[in-house]
Amino acid sequence: MHSVLTATTALGLLAATGMAHAEMLDVEKDELTFGFIKLTDMAPLAVAYELGYFEDEGLYVTLEPQANWKVLLDRVIDGELDGAHMLAGQPLAATIGFGTEAHIVTPFSMDLNGNGITVSNEVWELMKENVPEADGKPVHPISASALAPVVQKFRDEGRPFNMGMVFPVSTHNYELRYWLAAGGLKPGYYAPGDAAGQIDANVLLSVTPPPQMPATLEAGTIDGYCVGEPWNQQAVFKGIGVPVITDYEIWKNNPEKVFGITAEFAEANPNTTLAMTKAMIRAAIWLDENDNANRPEAVEILARSEYVGADEEVIAASMTGTFTYEPGDTREVPDFNVFFRYNATYPYYSDAVWYLTQMRRWGQIPEQKPDSWYDEVARSVYKPEIYLEAARMLVDEGLASEADFPWDTDGYRAPTAETIDGIEYDGRTPNAYLEKFPIGLKGSQTVTGSGIQG
After folding, report:
1. Among 82, 364, 408, 417, which has the highest number of CB atoms less than 10 A from its own CB?
2. Domain of 295?
3. Backbone angles phi, psi at 225, to 5 degrees
4. Does residue 413 form part of some domain?
5. What is the pLDDT of residue 18?
6. How many domains does the chain have?
7. How far is CA 195 from CA 170, 189, 270, in A?
8. What is the value of pTM for the model shown?
């Protein structure tokens, strides 16, 4: 049985203690079903449910795990799900018509960081020869240049080098490609009519659903993968692989998942959309407050079979401020999972633009687009105006602090070069950003089955 704090109980407790409480909106739809994939970064949904934040807003929510990202998106589009934990690339790709076409919007970004890249034990033993050590441990961050001789060795032996990622428009696909290319490896291109993304590749990437990653690695079908937690730590605990880098080391405080709904749902249900956003903001605050003091409780919730369904020890390995690379090599990474600080929940246009640049870089957007196009798409999908309205209500109700929200932002984060290759990203100039990469499409280049043209 869950210990669900009901709205009545919560309001009674708050009234008794003299604290403010949520003002219930007149929601258009009060019974909702939200989808998620079994990953620790679905935590804002689980917490909003278990702590009664949805009920405080007059929402009666059912949370349903989904088989994979495609099924999840399709069910949101056809209305079987009212909304879902999504890959940040999914609303953008759907809106521009890469894959299934539909106008999806997001009023809430779910987290920063949270992914890792894991390789098999065999690959790690070969990689280690190219990785410097200090105090008997590998020096981090580990560049993919250490992997390049291993990939060449496989090729010399007539073996393809295969790596898994979770979906063609996933953060994991773009992070894995970013890391490989920064180390001089080619992760391949997409072309119109070619969804495999392996044109001109020396590392072959393919889709594997997150919970199946460890077993697929153990079977030898793939030689490594990029995935969210707890599936990197699972490889360590099972003794079948070694995480070599986290996405925090690839791009410090990179945006991860979003909460996606159809534009039609948002338009037809404005108060419901505000109410769900309020509940998720409260959950995110709870997850990060007091220096992550609530994380052990969050781990216990997530470990339940209806949510992530992995051992508490495995989930805690990355949710409580540390990350284990190998047995005996656990390091402090206090920001591996960020749910609220650094404005993690605000849907920045610049986050959207970064995903679009990576779609262009690898051929998913087949032709050059002007900078204005990137901005227009970002504004059509990311909805900070809904987020800030929800945040204002929480502040007025005494449930959030005025200082915790970026009221005056234009939606673009400051340029950052805190990346593994030191290349600065400024979301206002996407084409100039693409020009900086030695590997990847730029300018008017296109991809055909035989490679890059132009």
Report:
1. 364
2. 7-113+256-404
3. -160, 165
4. no
5. 36
6. 2
7. 14, 9, 36
8. 0.94
